[in-house]
């Protein structure tokens, strides 16, 4: 059930009607829990059992951590929740990947092993809801939080439908306190929530699917070598497509939750205006980067054990970030490349002292363009089906020459125009909030903008495509 489907709007209208009816707060939460399970079951009903298993495991593991009187027992309950959550994720997402690499290693030793391929369907959102649920047990184990008294609240936290499939990855400590009292949004919240919902749908259906996806497909769906202009066109198209696709979902999810009176964390903050790669990850998929920082990077030592160990920890974190995105070595390479970017940046910051020149606007813009270019080139590995395709495209981007195919001039002009608009708008908004900008407008201008957005969505939507991050 996509946010941009008529089915979802019927579903959401019914949920809102119940939510703002004169029922008790407990009844409303039960309604939201049922709606969340129904939302997930619309895709594949049997996999609702995974949500239930995840919920029960972390709920009782959290209680077990607190009731244990020895460190070993506390650790045992933490390992149980890790085994169940990471075990589910590994089995459904990485089983075939691990099997293929095991067969490859046996082949290197001249051992021929041909088992049947596992026919597994990847449950939607499993990478998101397992990471969200783990924050509950982790924070209890670290003595940052106490077990929550209401199982209903916790079950709603794990399965809350706006964030269930594609995030943002919300922490138990941020969501559960919102369940204490009735979450009836004010009129301004509901209005802004619907604005975010429509904006997210516009980003997804018009900008990502309608305008940029065809140019990206024209590059990445071909097996030959593109010319230089086509390589840059397709790469920049995907750079914009993945932003509008994923940010579109997050924006819609935050808007839907806001209509219901819940606040979800910001997931994107104009990332293509980042100055440096650490700044990029403070702006791109913020909920994941903060999760990896707090629960992985810091846990393995962070920057507390010297420069070399810090570099190792950065690379390890980013390699796992890449693997989180997909069971393929191209995703691992994408993560490793971002790790390398951050190491280079960190090293340069230690070698070159801070000075006023780095704060000069022109220098900032120059560094921002370097960041954007490097991030765009890394997306080639993210999108490519193989290393051969990735290196073929990268080579075409840096070495002039005639390719075996070209992308139409129309797509080139469209892609470069949209890329320029992205860079300008992100740079203008990098230190501002959308909420602030919208509420500084007169009411009539907001009405015009929403009307135009709806008209464009209805008339200019592209081919119906699933959200890119559904596969993760």
Secondary structure layout:
Layout: H1 6-19, H2 25-41, H3 48-67, H4 71-108, H5 126-141, H6 151-159, H7 161-164, H8 172-175, H9 187-220, H10 228-259, H11 277-281, H12 286-297, H13 307-325, H14 329-351, H15 361-383, H16 387-398, H17 409-429, H18 434-440, H19 443-460
Helix pairs in contact: 1-2, 2-6, 3-4, 3-5, 3-6, 4-5, 9-10, 9-17, 9-19, 10-15, 10-16, 10-17, 12-13, 13-14, 14-15, 15-16
Overview of this protein structure:
The protein has 472 residues and is mainly alpha-helical. It is 69% helix and 0% strand. It is built from 19 helices and no strands. The chain has helices at residues 6-19, 25-41, 48-67, 71-108, 126-141, 151-159, 161-164, 172-175, 187-220, 228-259, 277-281, 286-297, 307-325, 329-351, 361-383, 387-398, 409-429, 434-440, 443-460. Helix 9 runs antiparallel to helix 17 (409-429) and helix 10 packs across helix 17. The longest helix has 38 residues, at 71-108. It starts with 5 loop residues before the first helix and ends in a 12-residue tail after the last helix.
């Amino acid at each position: 059930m996509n946010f941009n489907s008529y089915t979802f709007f019927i579903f959401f209208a019914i949920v809102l009607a119940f939510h703002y009816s004169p029922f008790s707060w407990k009844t409303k939460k039960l309604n939201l829990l049922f709606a969340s399970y129904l939302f997930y079951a619309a895709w594949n009903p049997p996999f609702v059992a995974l949500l239930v298993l995840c919920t029960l495991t972390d709920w009782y593991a959290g209680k077990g951590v607190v009731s244990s009187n020895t460190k070993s027992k506390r650790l045992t309950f933490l390992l149980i929740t890790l085994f169940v959550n990471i075990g589910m994720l590994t089995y459904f997402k990485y089983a075939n990947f691990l099997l293929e690499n095991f067969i490859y290693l046996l082949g290197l030793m001249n051992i021929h092993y041909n088992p049947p391929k596992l026919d597994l369907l990847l449950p939607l959102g499993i990478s998101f809801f397992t990471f969200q649920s783990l924050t509950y047990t982790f924070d209890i184990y670290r003595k940052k939080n106490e077990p929550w008294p209401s199982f209903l609240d916790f079950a709603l936290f794990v399965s809350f439908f706006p964030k269930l499939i594609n995030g943002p990855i919300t922490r138990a400590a941020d969501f559960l306190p919102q369940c204490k009292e009735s979450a009836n949004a004010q009129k301004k919240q509901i209005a802004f929530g619907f604005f975010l919902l429509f904006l997210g749908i516009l980003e997804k259906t018009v900008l990502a699917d309608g305008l940029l996806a065809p140019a990206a497909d024209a590059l990445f769906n071909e097996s030959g070598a593109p010319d230089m202009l086509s390589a840059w066109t397709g790469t920049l198209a995907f750079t914009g497509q993945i932003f509008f696709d994923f940010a579109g979902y997050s924006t819609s999810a935050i808007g839907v939750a806001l209509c219901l009176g819940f606040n979800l964390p910001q997931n994107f903050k104009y990332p293509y205006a980042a100055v440096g790669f650490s700044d990029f990850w403070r702006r791109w998929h913020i909920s994941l980067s903060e999760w990896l920082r707090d629960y992985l990077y810091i846990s393995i030592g962070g920057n507390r054990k010297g420069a070399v160990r810090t570099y190792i920890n950065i690379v390890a974190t980013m390699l796992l970030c890449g693997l989180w995105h997909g069971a393929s070595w191209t995703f691992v390479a994408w993560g490793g490349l971002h790790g390398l970017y951050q190491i280079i940046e960190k090293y340069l910051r230690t070698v070159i002292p801070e000075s006023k020149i780095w704060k000069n606007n022109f220098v900032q813009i120059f560094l921002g363009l370097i960041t954007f270019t490097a991030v765009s080139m890394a997306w080639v590995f993210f999108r490519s089906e193989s290393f051969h395709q990735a290196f073929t495209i990268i080579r075409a981007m840096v070495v002039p020459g005639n390719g075996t195919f070209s992308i139409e001039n129309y797509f080139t002009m469209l892609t470069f125009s949209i890329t320029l608009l992205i860079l300008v708008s992100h740079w203008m908004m990098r230190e501002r909030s959308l909420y602030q900008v919208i509420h500084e407008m007169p009411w009539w201008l907001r009405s015009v903008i929403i009307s135009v957005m709806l008209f464009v969505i209805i008339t200019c939507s592209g081919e119906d495509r699933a959200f890119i991050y559904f596969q993760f």
